[in-house]
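Worked example (supplementary).
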Amino acid sequence: MTSQLATSFSAELPAWLRSELDELAAVPRVTLDDRMALVNYLADRNWREGNGGPFAAIVVDHTTGEIVSLGVNVVLSSSLSSMHAEVTALTLAQVAVGNWDLGADPDRELELVVNWRPCVMCYGATMWSGVKHLVVAGDGPELETLSGFDEGPMREDWAQQFEDRGISVAQDIGRDAALAVFRAYGEAETLVYNARGTSGA
Amino acid sequence: MTSQLATSFSAELPAWLRSELDELAAVPRVTLDDRMALVNYLADRNWREGNGGPFAAIVVDHTTGEIVSLGVNVVLSSSLSSMHAEVTALTLAQVAVGNWDLGADPDRELELVVNWRPCVMCYGATMWSGVKHLVVAGDGPELETLSGFDEGPMREDWAQQFEDRGISVAQDIGRDAALAVFRAYGEAETLVYNARGTSGA
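After joint prediction of all chains, the assembly is encoded as:
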């Protein structure tokens, strides 16, 4: 008898992003604003292309801005609920460096840049990834209000918990542009894939 | 020029588990104790085989106990920090049913069974997966004390937050056997892959 159970899985970036990857990664993103501008572009493009929610994340060299990975939310295109933008970007960065620990090289601190405070799942995924820096566009309730997503139960001291583990947090980078993406998404009445309130951003 | 960036990733169950899969999944696990006994067996086997931490999870049909997926922590063998047992089991279940939403079939409620309260990442992954039931061996600080893992910042009302989203929680199933696994792991002084305190269970 052959097994009915799955033994492996995979996920990939959508075709539109694969085709733009070289161009988008060609130049370092030197400032935090540069980095978030790319993330906001990817997030807006992603939901319009139908791959998943309006979320993107990138991993960069904290010092130089060299791009290590680009990720978007591919929950819909992969049919896997854990494939949020942060998990996708962090995992692709680990493939690129060949190590589950993105903090393994003390001479090259890596940074995750994402277009809002991570949901509770991605909060943990970031914490365990080895990145030393997190940059977010904002952290308020606006995301849930505008987009309809459930971000899950977070603690008030979420940022301090990162700092306590040696991970710096920079907030309110490219905030207005991020909110514009969520607003456009919410107004388009696209499928929010948590119709029963059980899927995060 | 060809892209230097990764565009896809994959993960698979370790060879020892693939070879036992048919036998382990052949019969339904009718009681919660039966289900957790399998999880505790897989968790203990997993760290001894060197694939990752002492953690396993399964997805079953809540009513019949039919096995939908088996997962173990494959952080070390996959070189991907997000591949905790819960993420692996939930993702393989989604591959099996062909849907990111394990709650899509109202006539077949699915259940995640795992050998301790999930870390903060897997807490969110469970919440977004569509499972309707969670069964854990325990939820206290014993896991961190015995094994050395960081489980991340959880809220006191973590179980109520599941219930609020329509996910039932059953606790203290197979607790003593789970603790024995963590104790054996801790005493073996195996690599705990969060030497800097940045990797969860």
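Two points are worth noting when inspecting this output. Chain B touches chain A through 71 residues (CB under 8 Å). The beta strands of chain B are 8-12, 56-61, 67-72, 110-114, 133-136, 168-170.
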